[in-house]
Amino acid sequence: MCLDQTELSHNLQQLSEKARSTTEFIQRLKGMSDKVTESCIEFERLVTAQCEALIQAIHDRREYLLEAIRMDKDTKIRILKDQQSNCTGKLQQTTGLIQFCIEALKETDSAAFLQVGSMLINRVANTDMTWHQEVTNAAPRVSPIVDLTLDDASVLRAIDNLNFIQMKPPLPPAIIPEDCSAENNSVTVAWQAPNHSFVEGYVLELDDGSGGEFREVYCGKETICTVDGLHFNSMYNARVKAFNSAGEGEYSELIGLQTAEVAWFTFDPVLSGGPGSGLIFNKNNATVSVEGWEHRVALGSVGFSRGIHYWEFTIDNYTADTDPAFGVARIDVNRSKMLGKDEKSFAMYIDRQRSWFQHNSVHERRVEGGISTGSTIGVLLDLQRHTLSFLVNGMPQGSVAFRDLYGVFYPAVSINRGVTLTLHTALDAPQMDYF
């Protein structure tokens, strides 16, 4: 076989394959035509059922409205019959009085007339007066007109707008950057509904603040959401998607939101046990004191799980022989014991002369140097090294107090009567030698 014959045979084989593929495609199209017919028949059935349900709802509503008219009619007729009966009784009494008076006027004996004349004059005068009030000036107690109007405009507009919608997943929402913000360790994300899309809800996702995997933080119908309890000094990426019964749409563009580098917080009265705690908060929850002799734990309003954080307390009042404790605690700490007495808290307790580090009722490493009114206690929580250290009046109080701290920790103090503290936050962490 020559080269031309080989090429022709090869081309014919390719053409034959294309013809076979086209034949199969035509068959698929025919099959799809049958499915279109079946789908339209089923859809016609559904639309017919929906319209019949709407028609039945109109019929039911019509019966309700007609019954309301009938009840209004029966009420008005009953009122009119009662008024008619009252007027008929009044007329009968008056007619009887008139007839009696006519007969009395026929009396020829003046003495006999004088016996009843005065009484009849009063009765006629009173009857005339009440007649004027009750009959002459009377009006029907109800109107014969049905003072109701059927408000069908909105229903007619809805019927005029009754149409098909193309059910498909919605388009991506649009993030509104000017309405998004970050404050302390929370971010607020706002977005706009996609145009020309039917939306049943939204899903908001954030990454882990370090460029890691996204997680769902909100699912609902609102178009703005604030997420609390995030890490400080972290860049969070946010994205949102819309969904409906046809499925989920594509994600919006990402927006990055930077949480605060240092934390601003106060004491949290609710986390500290509420009104029954015995703690007294002042100066917008920055100052705390207590009346009782038993130690009570006050917690800060934020929890930390990573980063370096530093805050201080000033001793506003220290008149009793007591030993306040400073440190951190987990959210489920025992709030009725000195800080450090249970396994949920890590603390330094200090008096006028010395201090100890305490955790789970084990206290160790006494350090000389105490506090008085005006002293400053610094707490350095380093969750990069997972350590906790303390400073008194700007100087390290011993070596690193605790190591291997993992999890979420809240700033905490425990005090009893005779101590008043003020919390200072949003401070830069001091440089420390970790020894």
TrEMBL record:
Pfam families to which the protein is assigned, alphabetical: fn3, SPRY
InterPro entries reported in the protein's UniProt record: B30.2/SPRY, B30.2/SPRY_sf, Bbox_C, ConA-like_dom_sf, COS_domain, E3_ligase_FN3/SPRY, FN3_dom, FN3_sf
Domain annotation Fibronectin type-III: ranges: 169-262
Biological process terms in GO annotation: axon guidance
UniProt-recorded Gene Ontology molecular function terms: zinc ion binding
COS domain: residues covered: 105-165
Listed CDD domains: FN3, SPRY_PRY_TRIM67_9
Keywords: Coiled coil, Metal-binding, Repeat, Zinc, Zinc-finger
GO cellular component, one term: neuron projection
Domain B30.2/SPRY: 244-432
UniProt name for this protein: E3 ubiquitin-protein ligase TRIM9
Organism whose genome encodes this protein: Glossina brevipalpis
